[in-house]
Amino acid sequence: MEVLQAIMTRRSIRKFTGEVITEEQLNILLRAGFQAPSAHNTQPWHFIVAKDKELLQKISDFHKYAKMLPNAGCGIIVCGDEEKQGNRGFLVEDCSAAIQNILLAAHGVGLGAVWCGLYDSGNLVESMKEVLELPNNIIPIGMVVVGNKDEERNISERYDESKIHYNKW
Ligand SMILES: Cc1cc2nc3c(=O)[nH]c(=O)nc-3n(C[C@H](O)[C@H](O)[C@H](O)COP(=O)(O)O)c2cc1C
Fold this sequence. Notes:
Blueprint: H1 3-9, H2 23-34, E1 45-50, H3 53-62, H4 69-72, E2 75-81, H5 88-108, E3 112-117, H6 124-132, E4 138-147
Antiparallel strand pairs: 1-2, 2-4, 3-4
The chain binds flavin mononucleotide (FMN).
Flavin mononucleotide (FMN) is lined by residues 11-12, 14, 65-66, 114-117, 156.
């Protein structure tokens, strides 16, 4: 899919067939994540691929907006390494860029995906650290829930002239 088409037509998909994505598809998504820009090119990300059914259930038990996870069959938890990027703002931005790349790549190969927020929301970071046994310097930023889609969603037109400012507010 052409890049602008992917950007303009991507929507969050929350209904999945239950069929798990292939290793080849997963590899495309991970490669897209790694290609994201990062401040000072520190590439502070790690990607935790969650496929184990029990683990998916555990995560959806504590994440009330990720109830679709077990049926998607795969979650990619994008984490930032504080030892690579000490500026928390940059760490979050870098990982968010990787998340968006993964979302677009998923859409590009015909899969459905949704970004499920982790940082910095309630106990989600702590719960995720515990369940994934993350070292202290690794901060979970967001999770991409991805799978074969069982819904189609219309394009949402968001262009808004009133939010564009030239040269000054
Ligand atoms: C930081 C962030 C956190 C989000 N967390 C969730 C979530 O936990 N669960 C969910 O279903 N969608 C989540 N979303 C998806 C948004 O609800 C969605 O992007 C928004 O409604 C716009 O719809 P679209 O993605 O179809 O364009 C999140 C999106 C962002 C950027």
